[in-house]
Design brief:
Two copies of one chain form a homodimer. By secondary structure, the first copy, chain A, is of the alpha+beta class. Chain A is built from seven helices and twelve strands. The structure holds a DNA duplex.
DNA sequence: CGGGCCATTGAAGTATGTCAAAGTTTGTGG
DNA sequence: CCACAAACTTTGACATACTTCAATGGCCCG
């Protein structure tokens, strides 16, 4: 499916190569011309521009932001690819994963407003592989240009730091979730986490569609797809949720939390 | 999953409270006067100054860096405390944890050169509680001053970004570790991770002393202290390691990896 | 309409959690 | 410096939740 593969495997030290407008992007066919200013975007209230005033926005709008569409299953970048862009999700859902000899470990899910690629700041190459779970559109921010914009705006610097901090906290919470001893607590926590994410993005926290397979959830939570399925069925039997394939309805979110998440911490 | 909803709820917007030299530090009795320049520190090759040239060092040395000593069991900061400082470990080991109704979840261990507190960038208060596992010394970096230094030095900005990226990657790897289905793989992976950390800091990767209890390890790895103990005993029986209380000798690190970590990924 | 992928469910074996007790180390106060 | 107490570690026995293997059924896409 994906033929393009520029895996380096070697860490590229900072400073990063300067962005050069004459150089084509990695996958030129799928990158479109820059659009309207960042803060007019539908997800700007979740994304980089959040909280920035006019002058800071100007700094941001100096950046040549490309857009890229992804179909389900397409990869945005792979572990080891040279870091040139941060990506912001405009719509759709992606998963970030570590490839393994037999399979993969799913380390994160990303939705509208999320920034992907911060992990590459450590050594200049992406630490994870990002795959679209459905049709997605992302903004490609050339990191070298972002650095220039950051040189001009302290508010932008702080916003970037804030986003990285938020992602770190999210990762702490994922680890905490996965470290639960009872699988039920992990699956229940996962549903509640998703519900919160949906709400933050203006969707119903009560009814939503899982964009990832049971296997992805299992990998994320450190269990098997069968156990995930059984947990969902069990929650449904107890009346906490309704499940139909990937459609989830949280009938009693607080009951779910009380019965499994809080309780499970022994 | 998350009992303290304020932690992950609506983010408190930056800008953060400005550093004011007239304001006393949180625990003034234990903060000492600034010392020699940052790059003369014994762990500078691991810490903030790494890779900075003279002019960037100057920017860094404008910061009033306090030192603080911690005894075993003392807390550096608590979840929810107002964020004013990043802390760099000079020596000793700390754990970062989430308090829970009955106990805690250990989310990270920090050693010399590590920066603690990045998680507070998300909303202006610390997401975790940090406790010393032994006698420690840390540098307290007033964040507002660090921001000013960052305004003056793009290299420093990139170094901070690099450190945050590195911590994010580390967290991804922890999640991956904890998501292993077999506990043996988690404990083995933990030992190998520790070994690498020791080596990076100039200690023997083969023999080292665990600074944390079996309970801490269990919490970190999402299992029980008994299981951790049993795993260690099992590794010792198979000749991969030698254990005497908290003293660990990795007799056959690669054998350990082959037998449990790589193998365990089904 | 058919084929492939995904989800559900069952049965059986096993790893791990839980409870309990003994042994060891560490720290404290006399 | 010793003695005691507290905290930590190890080990065992048992119950159970989870993984594994397997088969069936549903959904979606071509």
């Amino acid at each position: 499916m994906e033929t393009h593969s520029t895996r380096t495997g070697v860490a590229v030290p900072l400073p990063l190569p300067r962005w050069n407008p004459g150089v084509r992007l990695l996958r030129p066919a799928r990158v479109e011309a820059p659009r309207a200013p960042c803060h007019t975007c539908g997800v700007s209230h979740l994304c980089l521009p959040k909280g920035l005033d006019d002058s800071d926005r100007d700094a941001l709008d100096q950046i040549t932001i490309g857009r890229r569409r992804l179909r389900k299953g397409q990869k945005l970048y792979r572990q080891g690819d040279t870091f040139l862009f941060l990506y912001a999700v405009r719509f759709g859902t992606c998963k970030a994963s570590f490839p393994l000899p037999n399979g993969e470990h799913v380390s994160a899910f990303h939705m509208a407003g999320d920034i992907m690629g911060f992990d590459a700041l450590a050594d200049g190459s992406y630490a994870t592989t990002v795959t679209a779970l459905e049709s997605c559109e992302v903004c490609a921010l050339p990191y070298a240009q972002l650095l220039e914009a950051c040189a001009a705006s302290s508010a932008l610097r702080q916003r970037v730091a804030q986003l990285m901090g938020a992602q770190l906290v999210r990762e702490y919470l994922v680890t905490k979730l996965v470290a639960h001893r009872h699988t039920e607590a992990r699956v229940a926590g996962f549903l509640l986490q998703l519900s919160k994410w949906m709400q933050e993005r203006g969707y119903s926290p009560r009814e939503f569609r899982l964009r990832m397979s049971r296997a992805d959830i299992g990998s994320y939570l450190g269990t098997t797809l069968e156990t995930v399925s059984r947990c969902l069925s069990q929650f449904a039997r107890h009346g906490h949720i309704r499940v139909h394939n990937r459609e989830i309805e949280l009938v009693d979110a607080e009951g779910l939390r009380a019965a499994y998440v809080d309780e499970g911490r022994a």
